[in-house]
Each structure stands twice: as structure tokens, then as C-alpha cells.
Amino acid sequence: MKNSLANRLWKIITSPSRMMLTVGAVIIMISLVRQYTGISDITSPGAAGATIRFTIPILMAGLGGLWAERSGVINIGLEGMMILGTWFGAWFGFLYGPWVGIFAGAIGGALAGILHAILTVRIGIDQAVSGLAINLLGMGTARFLSGVFFLGKGGDINISPQVNSIGTFTVPGLSPFLTEIGSKHILVISDVAGVCAGFITKINWASLVLILALPLTAWILWKTRFGLRMRFCGENPVAAESLGVNVYRTRYIALAVSGALAGLGGAYISVISTGNYLEGQTAGRGYIGLAAVIFGNWTPAGVLAGSVLFGLTDALRVRQSTSVHALLLVVITLALAYGVSKLRKKDWKGFIIGVVIGGVVLAYYLINKVVPDEFVTFFPNLTTILVLAFLSQRLRPPAMAGAPYRKGEESS
Amino acid sequence: MKRLNRFFWALAAPIAAVVFTLIFVSIILLMKGASPLSTFQLIASYGSQPENLVAELNQTVAYYLAGVAAAIGFRMLLFNIGIDGQYRLAVFIAAVVGGATNLPAFLEVPLIVITGVVVGALWASIAGYLKVKRNISEVISNIMLNTIASGLIIYLLQPGRLGLKGGLSDNLATPMIPKSGWMPSFHIMGGELYSFAFVAIAVGVLYWVVLNKSVFGFNLRATGMSFRAARASGVNAPRMVFITMALSGAIAGLTGMGELLSHTHTYSLAFPTGYALTGLALALLGRSNPVGIAIAAFFWAFLEQAAPALDLNGVPKEIVMMMQGTVILATVTSYEIVKRITRRQQQRLVGAAEAPRVDAVAKGVKS
Q1: Which pTM does this prediction carry?
Q2: What pLDDT sits at residue A69?
């Protein structure tokens, strides 16, 4: 039963025709909104490029969370691991160049991941306690090390010296062509062209390399023997152990990778996005990564969808806050469409929920001219709470994620 | 002998944790080129100066309440990481209510305090509801709720909504609470000790009495020990989980009241954050015992008060933050190890006691 449900979800997410239909519908809707409101930044190449830059750290943290939770350990320490990633990335990036910095960020995160593994897997302390303590340690360590290393090197106690930037690439010919079409404001065509232009204009090489972590994760977790065993450990460690899987070792590896991914996300923020380490620059993205895992129902494609959604709102907020307001129209349409589709099946509760949500957002849209920044900031968190509250029956987390496991002891 | 043994093992864990932390921090200090011994001396001497002691006590009160809030959750195996959001939203709305009303003191002060308690409880009960009705981990929902609380507060604190610009500093703040809503402070040792400390003491006593001497407390502890067993014996276990979460939030709502009623009289973004982590750490250190939490809270406040002195003497003050993180991990780890050692001892004792009978049974089977 569980298997068939997971399969079905997986098929829905990966089914090409359905995916095309959904994506097509969303594109047309966004295009109409752009046309109606006249806010062209929504689908401009610049916005698309910014979305990539904001998405990647969240995606990395989310994939880190996915690795950990699929193996059966909840990783609340993602934030701390990201902070270590920002610090290591910036310092080693300053010393030896940006690519070494990104690699060092991964190492820094992985070390914290291994610490989390020692504490939760080997010693068996509470996973939440360990994760929170790692967040505290990550913050403290980064601050401490900044005070030790940055002073006198062109940095300060909360800011590192500047890291050289990694080059970008633009697809010649195609990029200016698409940008040109994008600026013509033709319905749908300009929007698609604009977004595509954003994806191939001035893209950082590091973005391209890091995004490979997504297909790699999907491949390892679902197509390799190790991935099968790892998911087995998350679903039923006792059974896995009895069939000869080394649960401890599997979780050690999973958590090291989890930390490394979070560290990469952190390094991306410090080395690529800002070019130096700034205290507090992760701004809770580790937690948002955790939210993306839940939003994405513990699948790589879902994590990507969550990260893009959260990254997009982040990017639009920074660029032009009226864009977010315009996007409310999409939310209203979706909510009303949901309600009407329920009407056909005589599902009155669903109808009322859809119409009420649509109505409330519509009222808000008409009364206010902009969505306040503060609301956009906690949009990922609010979305997660709502998803948890209303869709919890559809969610399927790994059965034993978060449960303590000792070798040789039957867990209850 | 047996009792002595148990006593030894109970003390072994915290002592081992402190020793480990001291060693760890000493290594870091040596790497930095500072002398560990003189650094610890500096912390001790700076922290025990009279005027610092009073500040530490005031801070202890806030930490203590956060610790008790976390400890209530722990008794139910609930991990209330939402204390931070609950406390800030509670202080904020209490300050707004206090600033908008002007009643006689015997009504105004309770009104502000009760507002805080209610807001804290309501905010926490969102997570409680999700936990009971939707089976959602309270850790995840509370982390999300913390960020939402911060966003709401910043939004509402803008001038023209519920906040004002100006005042003493240039910070955004709520309107000043009238004098009738102020709680007195005591002048001792050159400092001002908030009278809210008495409320904290009362909360500690109440916590102990309710948990250990009442039917409600018994049900709560029973549900925490075994959800299924409690349910089977007639306790409405889901309801207990919900109530515990709300109670924890209610206490969290008291956390910032001392500062608000006796010192600032207005809420601004200068109110500290991160009480959730601190509260949980203190409840862990103090083993959810009211006296234990108080000692841990004072220790914590002492360290933080001494931190600035380190900076002046060339030692980065962030060492204190690392010390705190290490203390948490070391404590939890050593409790876990001690638990395993004592359990093994018990098993051996039981095994030794049962061995003759087992032998007899085995012989009986053979013959």
C-alpha cells in the first residue's frame, strides 16, 4: 500500500505529459498576469537569473535534508552546517581561489555532518538536541574563527576579505536573441523567451556544477544499491540490519553527504552570491531547506519544486516587491480553480476551502498595493505549515526518520 | 552501598560534561595563544562583581522561565523549540496591550502578565494542535512558527500600525506602558533587581508541586513515559499532549516580563532572541528539575555576563558561545553513556540474582 502510494506520487511528479500540462498552465497564467498588471520583471531574464542564485543554496540545504532523512536521521543542524560552509568557503576561497573555497565549504559542512552522525548514530542522543547544538556550535565557531583569522587580512570580526569571483558564461547568439524576444511583451512567447534567456545568460559556472547534485542525488537514491539500502534504513532499520545492511555505516555516509551538501549551499552564498563571508548571511536558509524537503514530500523533484518556489519569492522580493503582489493573482486563480474542480465531484468542503482562500487573497490583493517584505520573508515557513496542516495525509516521510535506533535493540 | 553507587553515577554525568567542556575550551584557548587558567580566572572575577551579579540574577530569571517552559515539554517528550516565538510574540502583544490601557496598578500589571501568558499559550497550541491532530513533529512546526512570529512582529511594529518611531533610541518600539503598569525593582549591590524574580520562584514551586503532587501531573508524566500505556489506563493522552504544549507556551510567555515590566516598559527589537535554544539547554542541564534549572540558568547568565571582559583582554568572546554548545552536547552525551552503564549494571545484578533459579530450571529440564 505504502509502496504503491509512493510509486503513484513519483509517477505523477515524473509523468512527462502531466508535468508538461502543469508547467504549460502555470506559464500561461503567469504570462496573463504579467500582461494584465504590466509588471514585466516577473519573467525578465534578470529575475530568472536571480531566481537561480537564490534557489541553489536552498536546493543544496534541501538535498542535504533529503539525504539525512531518507537514511532515518533528522538533520536540524543544516543551518549550522551552512554557516560553517559560508565561513570555510570564504576563507579558503580568499586564500586559494573560489573553487577551492567551495570545496572547503563542503568539507566544513561534512565535518559537522559527521559530528551529528557520531552523536546521534553512535552515541544515540536525541537528534533534535544534537542538531540544535550543532547550529549553536556552527554559529559560535564561525564567529570565533572570524575574530582569529580575518582581522588584519582586509576583513573584520564579522566580515571576510573579498573572494575572487568565478567566471560566468553566456550562450552566444541565442542569449541576445531570446532577450530581444523577451523584451517585446508578446503573450507567452516573450515570457518563455525571457526566462530561458535568464537561464543561459551570465550563468555562474559554480551554479552549473552545483545543480548536478540534484540528478546525482536522484540517481544514487533510486537507482543504486547503496541508495536502496539507505532508504531501507530510513523506513525500517531493524529489518535492514537483519538483512545484512550496516545501518550505522550507511547513516554515517548519508550524514556526511548531507553536511557536505549544506556546506556547499553555504559556500555558494559566501563565495558566489556576496563574494565574502558576512555574519548571519545564511538567514535561516537551512531551516527553509528543511521546509523544502517537507514541501517536496521527500523526493528530489519535490525538493527542487520547493526550492524554486521559495527561491523565486526571495528573488522577486529583493528585485521588485510589486512582483510578489502581482503573483497573488496566480494564487487566487489556483485556489478558485481548485474549488471549482471540487464542485464537479460534489465535494463541498473542498469547494468552500478553495473559494474562501481565493476570496481572502483576492480581498487582500485589491486592498493593498504591495505585499509587505516581512510576509514574503516567512512565506516558505507559512507554506510549510499549511502543507503540513492540510496535506499531511498525502505526505509520506520515511517511516523511521527521527526515531532512535540501537543495533540489536527492537525499537518500539 | 547501592545508594552510594547510584549517587555517584548521577553526579558523574554533569561533572564529566563540565570537565570535558573545560578541556575542549582550554585547547582552543591554547591554540589561540591565550592562557586557559587566566581566562577562567577572568571570567570568574568579572562575573562575581556585585553590579554584574544583579544583572546576572535578572538574566537568570528570564533564562529560568525559558528553562521551565522547556522542561514541561520534556516531561511529555515534547521538544518546544518554539519558546523563542512564543516569548517574543507574548512580550510584544503584552506591551501593546499595556501601552493602550491605563488601569490602576492592581489591574494593569496582571492584565499585562495574563495577556503574555495567553498569547504564549495560544501560539504554542498551534503546534500542539498540529501534533495531536495531524501527527506533525512539533520541532518542525515550531521552527516555522518562530520565523512567522518574527515576521509578524516586525510587520506590526512599523510606525502607523502598532509601533512608534523614536523614544530614547531610534528603534521601533511599542508605546510606553503607563507608570501603573510598572513593577518595582530592588536596589541592591548597586544594581536593580526586578521584583518579577518572585513570580519566577512561584512558577518553579508551582511546577514542582503540580507535576509531582497532583493527578494532572501524574497523568502528564505517565503520558510522557508511555503514550500507549497511559491511553490504555484511561488518560486522554492526546489531550495531555495538547495541554502540555499550551502550558509550555504559557510559561514561555512569562519569560520576557521581568525586562518589560521593570526595565524597558516598551517592546522593541532590542529584546534578545534565541531563548528557545537556551531554555532547552538549561532544561537538559538541570534534568528538568526546578532547582537544577535554576543553577544552570545562573551558570549560563554568569558566562554571558563575563563574555565582554574577555574581548577586552584579547580573547574572542565567542568562546562563550562555543562553551555553551559544547556543554549541551557533553551533558546529553554523558547522560546517555551513564544511562547505558547503569542499565548494564542493573542487568548484571538481575542476572546474578536470577542465575541460581535459571540453573535450577535448566537442571530440571535436563532430568
Answers
A1: 0.83
A2: 92
| B84 lies in the same domain as B177 | yes
| Same domain as B279, residue B234 | yes
Q: Distance, in angstroms, between B321 CA and closest chain A CA?
A: 5
Does A322 reach chain B within 8 Å, measured CB to CB? no
Specify whether B28 is located in the same domain as B105. no
DSSP B214: S
Domain check: are B24 and B58 in the same one? Answer: no
Overall average pLDDT of the A36-41 stretch: 74
Burial B41-60 (b: 16+ CB within 10 A, else e): ebbeebbebeebbbbbbbbb
Average pLDDT over residues B16-29: 83
Tens digit of pLDDT for each residue in A142-161? Answer: 888 887 787 777 777 777 77
ipTM of the prediction: 0.80
pLDDT for A244-274, tens place per residue?
Answer: 889 999 999 999 999 999 999 999 998 888 8
Q: Are residues B67 and B216 in the same domain?
A: yes
Helix (H, G, I), strand (E, B) or coil at A207: helix
CB-CB neighbors (< 8 A) of B130 in chain A:
385, 388-389
Q: Name chain B contacts of A384, Cβ cutoff 8 Å.
A: 140, 144
* Range of the structural domain that residue B3 is part of: 1-34+316-337
- The yes-or-no verdict on residue A14 having pLDDT over 70 is no
In DSSP notation, B41-53 reads HHHHHHHTSHHHH
Q: State whether residue A114 sits within 8 Å of chain B by CB.
A: no
Q: Give chain B positions within 8 Å (CB) of A382.
A: 144, 148
C-alpha cell at A113: 555532518
| In a domain? residue B175 | yes
The DSSP bridge partners found for residue A155 are A151
Distance between CA atoms of residues B287 and B289, nearest Å: 5
Same domain membership, residue B252 and residue B129: yes
Identify whether the C-beta of residue B20 lies closer than 8 Å to the C-beta of residue B326. yes
- Residue B341: name the closest of A403, A128, B333 by CA: B333
Report if residue B347 sits inside a domain: no
Indicate the burial class of A95 (C-beta count within 10 angstroms; 0-12, 13-18, 19 or more).
middle
CB distance B121 to B249 below 8 Å: yes
Looking at residue B170, its pLDDT comes to 64
Q: Are residues B332 and B184 in the same domain?
A: no
pLDDT category, A17, cuts 50, 70, 90?
A: low
pLDDT, position A341: 77
Q: How confident is the model at residue A412 (pLDDT cuts 50, 70, 90)?
A: very low
Q: What residues have CB less than 8 Å from B130, skipping those under 6 apart?
A: A385, A388, A389, B136, B138, B141
Which chain B residue has the Cα nearest residue A393? Answer: B134
Count of the separate structural domains present in chain B? 2
CATH label of the domain that carries residue B72:
1.10.3470
pLDDT tens digit sequence for A316-358: 777 766 777 777 888 888 888 878 877 777 778 778 888 888 8
Distance CA B204, CA B297 (A): 13
CA distances from residue B165 to A273, B52, B174 in whole angstroms, order as listed: 33, 31, 9
Q: Do the domain assignments include residue B124?
A: yes
**Residue B126: all three cell numbers together:** 498551534
B188, B263: one domain = yes
Give CA torsion, residues B286, B291, B295, B298, to 10 deg. 110
Map grid coordinates 536521521 to a residue: A73
Flag whether B227 is in a domain.
yes
Res B68: pLDDT: 95
